[in-house]
């Protein structure tokens, strides 16, 4: 069966779709067959990113790997069983279609709580939660004391992940490997950065996730979106020599993939 990687975060602007695209593309470039689903039915950033990639590959006749983009199938009410949720059925049908022909399925969830997102979390073998490195985003995971920064309790999102873990345990499935990825880290060891890091480490042991380093704030991430390309595709775009910033960003992708520790994946870039 395909290994399912879910990108989840109930706050927007954390670089979730960019992270999803780089994970999916890295796996595809390493020779794995990768399916892709975007559950944000309104913004569809991950979906559009892959469409842009498909268009660039066709227009420039590039020989580069691309994830298999899947739409959620339309289901008529007559096809539903009694009490069955239509979104559950659409997602399960899409995953079932991809599972038989993919090594990995990357699912990007919307930046809000939806039924589709809730179900996707219960399907996750690996859950990646990107967050901006601030206490504004930390609030996604837990409530903290404003004076001492001690953790008061888990957030509604953490409770949703806990519920997804319970559902998987009841179904006899392997536990979710949850990785919280710190995006947009500042270049300097600022006081706030250390506070966020300390709070994350304390919370990680308390509710069961691993902490990984994601992507720094770089203009190139925004520039690549219209072409659908990633930091791993710069040579195909005609960039013969990578500058220091590009090399550092490429290393960030490598470090993220190593942190995920996905089954059968050897980092080859």
From TrEMBL:
It comes from Rhodophyticola porphyridii. InterPro entries: DNA_Partitioning_ATPase, MipZ, P-loop_NTPase. Gene3D superfamilies: P-loop containing nucleotide triphosphate hydrolases. This is ATPase. It comes from the Bacteria. It holds the Pfam family MipZ.
